[in-house]
Amino acid sequence: MRQATAGLIAAGALLSACAGTPAALRPQAVHVATPETKGYLSGPRIQALADAVPPPPVAGSPTDLADKARSARFKTLEDSDRWLLATAHAELRPPLALQHFDCTLGVRLGSATTPNLNRLMQRLFHDSDAAAELAKARGFRPRPVGDDPERRPCQRVSEAGRKSASYPSGSSTVATVYGEAFAALEPQRATEARRTAHEMGLSRLVCGMHYPSDVAAGETLGKAVFDAASDAPGFEADLAAARTELAAARATGLTNPGCASERVALATPLP
Asked: What's the whole-model pTM score?
C-alpha cells in the first residue's frame, strides 16, 4: 500500500527533478524563466527586505540546539509517504510548483493553460528567491545535511549544495509567497492556501535541508516580500488576469488524481 501511495504522490505532483532555491541545487534543464523575466521589486527594496531578517541562531545557543534536536527526529520519516511528498515539494519553480496547490484549490493546473498565472508567480519567485539569497549572504548557517554528512536528503544534492547556507529557508520564502498569492486570488480558500505553503516549508525539515528556525524566518520573509510586491505597479492587473485563468481552470472540472494520497501523507504525525 505504501508503494502504491508513494507512486500516486509522485505522479500527482508531476515531479520531474528536485530543486532547491540555491543555485547549487537547481537542475537548469527545467528552468522555465525567460531571461527578461523580472520581479515586482527593485534591487534596493529587495536588499532592504533581506537586511530586515534577523541573524541566524548562534551555534550552540538554546535555539540552535533545539533546532538540531528536532531535526534529528525527522530522520524517522525517511522513505515514508510524507518523505515522498517532500521530494515533490522540493520543486519550487513555476509552473510545476503551482501544482502543489491543486488539491487545496480543487483544480488541475497541470492540465490548464495559465500564462498570466505563471507570469505572476514567476515574478514573485524572482523577488522572493533574490531576497532569501541576499539574507543568506549576511550570516552563514550550515544545513542539517551539511552538519551531518551521513544525513539522507530527500532530493539529489551535490557537495556544493550540502555546503550551501540554510538560513533563512529560501524554499519557505518562495512557498509562503505562493501561498499568499493564492490566498489573494481566492480569498475564500486563503486559510487552505497558506496551510499548503506551510506544509511545503515543513517538507524542508522532513528532507533534512533546513532547521525549524530557518523555515520560520523564511515564512516571515515571504510574507514581507508579498506585501511589498502587492503594492508594486502592475501587480493588481496581473492578479486580476491570473484570477480569470484560475476560474477557467476550475470550470473544466479537472482535479489532481494525487489528492487522496496527498491527504494520507499530510496525515502523518510530525516529530
From this structure: 0.88
Q: Look up the CATH number of domain 2-266.
A: 1.20.144.10
pLDDT 10s digits, 115-146: 999 999 999 999 999 999 999 999 999 999 99
- Residue 165's SS3 state is strand
Distances (CA, A) of 184 to 174, 238, 254: 15, 12, 22
Sign of CA dihedral 232, 237, 243, 245: negative
Q: Is 224 within 8 Å of 54 (Cβ atoms)?
A: no
**How many C-beta atoms surround the C-beta of residue 18 within 10 A?**
22
* 8 A C-beta contact, residue 52 and residue 224: yes
Q: In whole angstroms, how far apart are CA 46 and each of 31, 53, 72, 158?
A: 22, 11, 33, 28
Q: Where are the domains of the chain?
A: 2-266
Query: Which value, to the nearest 10 degrees, does the dihedral of the CA atoms of residues 233, 228, 35, 161 take?
Result: -170
SS3 257: coil
